[in-house]
């Protein structure tokens, strides 16, 4: 009996260590500290910031992810235009513009809009999507989440795109071309967003709205959008660049999607 208990202890102790420490362990040391503590530490730190500084944390997160999305768009643009990655370097002002938009415009707007959605038509009965124990709840209304997502992707998206175009143009000093860009690029950008939503974005957003508490929805949406926003931004900047040159230099013979150096 004692021998059997010793064998069971040998088998269960590493498993207990792995589960309690984040899922990784080393046969010799018992725990691989770097692997087991990094992710829980980052997650714990982020959630602590979310609890203490919710709006600021959401805004900075949205800004960083928007800047990352624009870096991806610039890399894609250089590759398609020149066959090289970053042949012309990164446009730092443009990256700052998208960080500014995410941090000071889109991030705050998403925070208060999602709060309003939940106040008017709550997905989880107004309890922030958590059980009494504090764990995530899995019994939210799928129909209510779908209404949130539909309204967000096909009504509020007009405000999101308009604000992005305006704020980035102001930061980059393209204020003279704002009326022309809104006239020729706003509707195509909205149509592109509608297509992206129907093909995948809104369904991923639906999952996040249904499963996650309200304080994590802005982060979830920013992560989802980062997977396709670089393409949207890339197309918009090609159009905006051509619109600018055609408007001021009358280069009417340029192809619509030619990138200007």
Report what the structure shows.
There is one protein chain. The chain has 261 residues and is an all-alpha fold. The chain has helices at residues 2-21, 33-52, 54-82, 92-120, 142-154, 157-172, 178-211, 217-225, 229-249. The model is unreliable at 1-28, 128-139 and 243-261 (pLDDT under 50).
Write a concise synopsis of the structure shown:
The protein is 73% helix and 0% strand.
**Computed CA radius of gyration, to the nearest angstrom:** 23 Å
Cα separation of the termini: 79 Å
Q: Tell me the quaternary state.
A: single chain
Instruction: Quickly give the structural class.
Output: mainly alpha
Measured by DSSP, the beta-strand proportion falls in: under 5%
Number of distinct beta strands: 0
Poorly predicted runs: 1-28, 128-139, 243-261
List the keywords.
mainly alpha, about 0% strand, disordered N terminus, about 260 residues, disordered C terminus
Architecture blueprint of SSEs:
Layout: H1 2-21, H2 33-52, H3 54-82, H4 92-120, H5 142-154, H6 157-172, H7 178-211, H8 217-225, H9 229-249
């Amino acid at each position: 009996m004692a021998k059997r208990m010793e064998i069971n202890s040998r088998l269960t102790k590493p498993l207990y260590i792995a589960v309690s420490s984040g899922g990784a362990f080393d046969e010799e040391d018992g725990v691989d500290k770097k692997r087991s503590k990094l992710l829980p530490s980052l997650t714990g730190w982020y959630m602590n910031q979310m609890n203490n500084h919710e709006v600021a944390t959401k805004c900075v997160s949205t800004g960083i992810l928007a800047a990352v999305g624009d870096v991806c768009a610039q890399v894609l643009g250089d590759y398609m235009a020149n066959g090289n990655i970053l042949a012309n370097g990164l446009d730092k002002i443009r990256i700052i513009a998208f960080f500014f938009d995410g941090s000071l415009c889109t991030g705050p707007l998403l925070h208060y809009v999602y709060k309003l959605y939940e106040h008017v038509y709550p997905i989880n009965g107004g309890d922030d999507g958590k059980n009494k124990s504090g764990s995530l709840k899995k019994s939210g209304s799928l129909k209510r989440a779908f209404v949130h997502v539909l309204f967000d992707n096909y009504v509020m998206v007009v405000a999101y795109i308009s604000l992005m175009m305006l704020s980035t143009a102001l930061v980059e000093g393209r204020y003279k071309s704002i009326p022309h860009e809104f006239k020729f690029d706003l509707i195509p950008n909205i149509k592109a967003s509608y297509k992206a939503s129907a093909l995948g974005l809104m369904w991923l957003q639906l999952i996040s709205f249904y499963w996650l508490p309200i304080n994590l929805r802005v982060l979830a949406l920013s992560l989802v959008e980062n997977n396709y926003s670089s393409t949207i931004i890339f197309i918009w900047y090609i159009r905006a660049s051509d619109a600018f040159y055609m408007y001021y230099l009358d280069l009417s013979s340029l192809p619509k999607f030619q990138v200007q150096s």
